[in-house]
Amino acid sequence: MNLDAIDRIAASTFEGYLVRKDLVRTFSRQFPVPTYVVEFLLGRYCASIDQDEIDEGLGIVQRQLLDRTVKAGEEELFKSRAREKGQVKIIDLVSARLDAKSDSYLATLPSLRLTDARIESDIVSKHERMLTGGFYAEITLGYDPIIAQEKNGRPFGIDGLREIQLSNRDVLEKLGEARTQFSTKEWKTLLLRSIGIEDSALSERQQNALFLRMVPFVERNFNMVELGPRGTGKSHLFQQVSPYAHLISGGKATVARMFVHMGSGQKGLVCQYDVVCFDEISGISFDQKDGVNIMKGYMESGEFSRGKESIRADGSVVMVGNFDVDVEHQQRVGHLFGPMPPEMRDDTAFMDRLHAFLPGWDVPKISKELLTNHFGLVSDFLSECWSQLRNQSRVSQLQNRVFFGGALSGRDTNAVNKTVSGLLKLLCPDGAQQIPEEDLEWAVRIAMESRRRVKEQQKRIGAAEFRNTHFSYVMGTDGVEKFVSTPELQSDNSIGTDPLEPGQVWTISPGGNGENPGLYRIEVNEGPGSGLKILNKPIPPAFRESIGCAEQNLYARASQLVGDKDPRHHEFTAQLRAFDASKSGAKIGVAALLALCTALLKKSVRGGLILVGEINLGGSIEAIHNPVNIAEIAVEKGATSLLMPVSCRRHLFDLSDDMATKVDIQFYSDAKDALLKAIIE
Fold it and tell me: Are the beta carbons of 586 and 513 closer than 8 angstroms?
């Protein structure tokens, strides 16, 4: 293996906590144990970059896995060894239950098909997770021939066990110190390698989705749903990487197992694990009618009741499921919670308790090319660090640095805060470290998009209180309001309802000289300097003329349009993007002028708005010869409102009733009137 720069930094900062991920895959295919069990052993014997040491360690790991894992058909062989030698060591999933008849605990070892092994109560009390689904451990299984002679005797007993997880608890400080040696990009690569993924073939959106998957491990009471295609590794992270996560496969989920057993008082999965993941969520149902209500209550407050007693837990709830249809089509005909169980599918109160909807369609299918052959952090070290990070919060990093827009309700803000906090903990494990602006904005955008996706589905169900979904935030000294969209709502030939960035305006050219009308987006940026540059190569002559008139009107009427800002002290760069066959950009001067003004004012134009009209050098608005045709194109492109010169009003009597009900047509008298009606108040 060729070490790259990240391998070398990791080797110098994480000595003893690294493992080559290709070795893990080799062993995990051979033996019937989760990935983190294999890594536990590899981390103990192969945490080195020296090939000789690795080879020696591999021999030990191979022998231990051969000697201690029970393959199908070997059950009686291991039992026989225990009888002959008095004891045998195995690696297995151990669980326990209370046997009321004998007032003692009995252990279950599935690989040996043993359901009644004796186990001391003090071992059970030290490892309560045995009672809620169990965990993998190195087990010393004893055999007592005297008990075997007794009637109904139980000769097999657990003499000792050692959980497969890190014994050293002061690991978070080590992680925080080592983080300072990596750039943000290098650190992201190392984290993805640690869960087995090589990021070089991934887009930024794909990487972001994988980071969002990790948030429930580091954030208490984090509720997330992920729906996406098969084969993207949805359940892998929650089953293979951390002993602090528990996967519930399809079928009935009992309230007693999830929360608390009313008879014994035994606390359930959400109390015992950091993350409880429902796999194949469409097939999950609760054994009690009020199971979903208990779940909703827990997801809201982190508490549930047992009789008069209220019990608090901090386990995160993750729901994953398969989403087999086209996402854009599903958005048109229904909503994205379609694969959920019936009792959750259309319940807006349940949805409101979800902090994030991870777009599983953004995650690529797992293939050989995506699996890393480099070094990554050993899973037990990483999962221990993640577990300890749950005791911290990074919400304070947002204070006085990020301001959310008015569309976010209290629950929206809480959801975004929790997601941002989790992402920042992954990025900067040291709580004292100041988060750079670009990293903070990265986390904010992911968090707002994943929460907005939840709210968009609530809006589709028809609840009026969820109508405003235009999530935005303000960061930095320039005070620019930025809007966050969910990409599946957008399509290339539709303008959508989200406000654009300042300096961007949708417009329709009326065409002429043999060219049909067409949709355009004008994009203007401003900076220090003077003058106007057009980035299109070649520059369409008609567009050059329109934006030239717009520039002169901006200079001549600056005080009316942009107040005390002097446009002559700013350099503008403009680009025309065509969305139809027409390319000339003829007669779109008013939209060009508003693009220049909003770039200077740092204001956004209303979402879903198309602005049309031409302005001449004298400031007059020219008449449009085909306003009905333009209104029909605006409806076709998905506009919700259309802003036109007032001279078009009489011509629009010819617009059909059907078209007139699909778009809100407003009129302006001059450039200032158009600007005031176009921008967000």
Answer: yes
**Confidence class of residue 263 from pLDDT cuts 50, 70 and 90?**
low
Q: How many residues does the chain have?
A: 681
Kindly report the number of other CB atoms within 10 A of residue 310's CB atom.
10
Q: Angle at Cα 409 formed by Cα 404 and Cα 414, nearest 5°?
A: 75
> What pLDDT, in 10s, does the model give residues 39-59?
888 877 876 777 888 888 889
Helix axes 184-194, 5-13, angle to 10 degrees: 80
CA 2/CA 4 separation, integer angstroms:
6
> Could you tell me if 348 and 254 are in contact, meaning their C-beta atoms sit under 8 angstroms apart?
no
Instruction: Decide if pLDDT at 493 tops 60.
Output: no
Residues 396, 401, 404: CA angle, nearest 5 degrees = 95
d(CA 322, CA 234): 9
What are the backbone angles phi and psi of residue 172, rounded to the nearest 5°? -65, -35
> Can you give the pLDDT at residue 18?
85
- DSSP SS3 for 177: helix
d(CA 418, CA 435): 16
The whole-number pLDDT of residue 167 equals: 55
In 274-378, alpha helices (H) = 291-301, 327-333, 342-345, 348-352
In Å, what is the CA distance from 531 to each residue of 196, 552, 619, 630? 51, 11, 19, 32
CA end-to-end distance (rounded Å), the chain:
59
> Which helix (H) or strand (E) is 255 found in, with range?
helix 255-258
What span, in angstroms and rounded, lies between the C-alpha atoms of 324 and 302?
32
- Give the C-alpha separation, 207 to 198, whole Å: 10
> Percent of the chain scored above 70 by pLDDT?
96
pLDDT of residue 494: 65
* pTM reported for the whole predicted model: 0.78
Residue 528: both structure tokens together: 């220090």
Torsion of CA 187, 192, 197, 203, to 10 degrees: -80
* Contact call for residues 19 and 378 (beta carbons, < 8 A): yes
| Count of C-beta atoms within a 10 Å radius of residue 528 | 7
Closest CA to 473 of 409, 410, 404: 404
pLDDT at residue 16 is higher than 60: yes
Provide the token pair at 78: 């291991």
Distance of CA 220 to the CA centre of its chain: 16
The crossing angle, in degrees rounded to 10, of helices 204-218 and 410-427 is 100
Residue 492: pLDDT over 60: no
Read off the pLDDT of residues 623-668 as tens digits, 9 standing for 90 and up.
Answer: 998 999 999 999 888 899 999 999 999 889 888 888 889 899 999 9
Report the C-alpha gap between 498 and 464 in whole angstroms: 18
Q: Count CA atoms within 13 Å of residue 161 on its CB side.
A: 30
Q: Is 101 exposed, middle or buried (0-12, 13-18, 19+ CB in 10 A)?
A: exposed
Residue with tokens 């959980």, as numbered in its chain: 163
**Structural tokens at position 590:** 């008013």
CA distance 532 to 135: 66
